[in-house]
Design brief:
- The chain is mostly helical and 71 residues long.
- The chain contains four helices and two strands; from the N terminus they run βααβαα.
- The chain is globular, with a radius of gyration of 12 Å.
- The mean pLDDT is 83.
């Protein structure tokens, strides 16, 4: 039987570029809930503006302690 071992959400910066603050907050809450419920590691991938989404939500920031910038 196969199981999900890692969830990768690519192009995540689009939330920061186009989403209203309420939408950003709701999405951050959804990701937090998903991480808690599934206990599957989640990788958020995107441009540097992704950091703004994470920084704007203290709880999301607390569950994403590892951050890397490439290039």
């Amino acid at each position: 039987r196969q199981a999900v071992e890692l969830l990768i959400l690519d192009e995540f910066q689009h939330l920061a570029e186009t989403g209203a603050e309420k939408t950003k907050s709701q999405t951050a809450d959804w990701i937090k809930g998903l991480a808690k419920e599934t206990r599957v590691p989640i990788v958020l991938v995107g441009m540097p503006s992704l950091a703004d989404v994470i920084a704007s939500n203290a709880q999301l920031a607390s569950i994403t302690p590892l951050r890397r910038e490439l290039g």
